[in-house]
Amino acid sequence: MRILEIVSGTTVCGATVHTLQIAKELHRRGNAITLMGKPGAWVLEQARAGGVPTLESPLKRLPLRDLQAAARFVRENAIEVLLAHMSGANNFGVWLSRLARVPVVLRAHAHTMHFHWRMAHHIIAVSEQTRRYHITRNLVPPTRISTVHGFIDPARLNMPDKGARQAVRAELGLSPADFVIGVIGNVIPRKGQIYLIRALPKVVARHAQVRVLLVGVVHPPRYGIQVRREAERLGIEAHVLWLGERKDVPRLLQALDLYALPTLNDMLPMAMLEAMWTALPILATRVGGIPEAITDGVDGWLVPPKDPDALANALLAIIENPEERARRAQNAHQRVQQSFTVQPQVAKIEAILQQVVAEYRQRRRR
């Protein structure tokens, strides 16, 4: 197939990493794919390095020159289908579809109310819960939305440096005896970091060696201030390290003893799947698409959202039961290996694109 993939994100995040992995795998599978994004975007640089053709565009709908230029590219290169990721690209993609007369498929990474979901020829949701949301809230016909779960690329997580655990801990001032909990994802209210902070006093009272790494961009700043002040009020600020945005997450995972996700709502976080592949024990909340990957008692621990006591009790159980920790961590690795890796998931996406193209051509012939 001749595919134009469009993404509006410019920095490293789950959606842009997924976009890159899809582009590279579709290219490897023999499709003529071009990845379009904003000038200077991280994902375009990575795609070019991986041999995937790229196209730069500001992706502005008005004035029409960006849409017209993209439509010329579509016609000149006989593009058969558009595949868009993230809100800006989704908006751009549905209008480009109308202008260039090719079908558009949107990948639903988030819960948003927007007209573009109804304008798409098909939607690919990253979890079944996300699919249900768009059917219920955006009134997307069930026949026009499919679930292809999020995934990870194991190659991205291979660590040739066998001493990475000790090296990362030394760089961060952590001792070999510390029990290190990683919370990876932007520090935003929806991710619920403040509830983990409120759980810590009960935990550190019995295990003073516990350390929490907060990894991600703080937004808005007032939420970061709120979390810091809460840690100070509770007297556990020395147990919390703020690492900010990091581009070496696979390496950081080697230093952890536990991956924690106290989120209030999430589709199916790639960072969690990566932690599962790394055979880390997982503590997460029972929200969004998370229970589609984690079964409480089997491959992780699930607790209700906004519940510091439940988080604290789970943390104590995890710290004090190393054999159970190892069992569930190994199960989590096997779960990802069976159901959440790039090649089989992108093959499903490719099949959906092929079906959309065939149906579009059939309608045009009528």
Notable traits:
366 residues, Rossmann fold, 13 strands, alpha/beta, 15 helices, six-stranded parallel β-sheet
Give the gist of this structure.
The chain is of the alpha/beta class. It has helices at residues 14-28, 42-49, 65-76, 87-100, 116-119, 128-137, 154-157, 164-171, 193-204, 221-234, 249-253, 270-277, 308-320, 322-339, 342-365, and strands at 2-7, 32-37, 54-56, 81-85, 104-108, 122-125, 145-147, 179-184, 210-215, 240-244, 258-261, 282-285, 301-303.
Structural summary, described in words:
With 366 residues, this protein is an alpha/beta fold. It has two domains: 2-151 and 341-365, 3-Layer(aba) Sandwich (Rossmann fold); 154-339, Rossmann fold (3-Layer(aba) Sandwich). The protein contains 15 helices and 13 strands. The strands form two sheets. A seven-stranded parallel β-sheet has the order 3-2-1-4-5-6-7, with helices on both faces. The chain has a six-stranded parallel β-sheet with strand order 10-9-8-11-12-13, sandwiched between helices. It is elongated and about 70 Å long.
> What is the CATH topology assignment of the largest domain?
Rossmann fold
Helix content bin: 40-55%
How many strand segments? 13
Uncertain residue ranges: none
Range of strand content: 15-25%
Order of strands, main sheet, comes to 3-2-1-4-5-6-7
CATH architecture of the largest domain: 3-Layer(aba) Sandwich
What is the radius of gyration? 22 Å
Counting DSSP H or I runs of 4 or more residues, the number of helices is: 15
Q: What spatial form do the alpha-carbon principal axes imply?
A: elongated
Helix and strand run = EHEHEHEHEHEHEHHEHEHEHEHEEHHH
